[in-house]
Predict the structure.
Amino acid sequence: MNCQECGKKPASLHFTKIVNGEKTEFHLCEACAREKGEMIPGTPNGFSIHNLLSGLLDFDPSSHSSLGTKPQTLRCEECGLTYSQFSKLGRFGCSSCYRHFSERLDPLFKRVHGNISHVGKVPKRSGGIIKYKREIENLKQELSKTIELEEFEQAARIRDRIRDLEKRMAEF
């Protein structure tokens, strides 16, 4: 597919713009996307994946001042990258940056993924034991809550379900 603007170069950027419920699709080459700066507001070169995602996620480091450490002073001890530099570059300097910036990353991950730890998918054919382990783990958490709420009959049912799953898992 060729660019809708120049009609010469192949379109490398494909996106949909929805304004007041009206959907418009755009297929542009990189040069035309840069020229049409109004496509992605606030970007100096017209298009930047990092700026696009930062805007969508409200990933502005200055807006997170309530988290304690100021973004300007938060720094990775291993590579020296500051949080401000990370927010501009959109990538880490080393693997330790995850640990040093976790205070700011955890809320972001939770907002994007719904959780701060990756659980992945369980294969249908070979994931039987993993599936049982996850279900047992979830039931144990539910059991703790029901005991805390003093719902002992429900807790006994959950306990029996856990025992049943543990027996099945032992058969594998």
